[in-house]
Amino acid sequence: MRAIVCEAYGPPDSLTEQDLPVPEPKGTEVRVRVAATGLGFVDGLMIQGLYQVRPPLPYRPGSEFAGVVDAVGPDCSTLAPGDRVFGNAPGALADFVCTDAARCFRTPDALDDASAASLVVNYPTALYGLRDCANLEAGETVLVLGASGGVGLAAIATARAFGARVVAAASTDAKRAVAKGAGANATVDYTQPDWRDALRACCPDGLNVVCDPVGGDVAEPAFRSLSPGGRFLVIGFAGGTIPRLPLNLALLKRSSIVGVDWGGESRAHPELLGQMLGDISTMIDAGTLKVAPVSARPATDYVTALEDQLGGRITGKLVLIRPHGTGT
Question: 325 pLDDT exceeds 60?
Answer without folding.
Answer: no
